[in-house]
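Recall that a protein's primary structure is simply its ordered list of amino acids. Everything else, from secondary elements to tertiary packing, is in principle encoded there. The following example makes that idea concrete.
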Amino acid sequence: MSHLSHHSVVQATTIVRAMDGKHKEQLADELFRVQPNLLGTVLVQTRLGVSPEKMEFLLNILFVCFQAMKVSGLRWPLITEDEIDRQSQRFVGSVQFTENLGENLRNPSMRQYVEDHPEKELLAYVQVETMNWLKRIVQEETDKYVILAAWNIVNCIAFSSVITANSK
């Protein structure tokens, strides 16, 4: 079941694209307070050799994901480092499984992964943004870390165990 509607993702995208540097800094501060481990998945990219320009792409993905969480009116529990690692292992396992399939089974398997994903709208946003980003950049080996982190952010949000209504 999806908790982030198409409207939430579109509204979040619009909000983040309209932000100037100061507003993005405030959003990063809020992210650090509310979901520091998700922010850490972006910041750790420097240790993997990812350039600051490419980290900016990933940070914007995270900003939209976080803003969509806020727009939804729901509250996510703290996503822990253990959960981030678990989702990463799960996703890498899925990718490795798919790579070992023959061509005739690979596409249906990938399609099924997307169709069964609990946050289709957010996943679709990340897929499209990533494909467009890959067309604009000079590709490097470290890009795989950025892509894996982007998908992992979505998976951590999607498979988070408890979601409750905001008490306002």
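The chain has eight helices and two strands. The mean pLDDT is 91.
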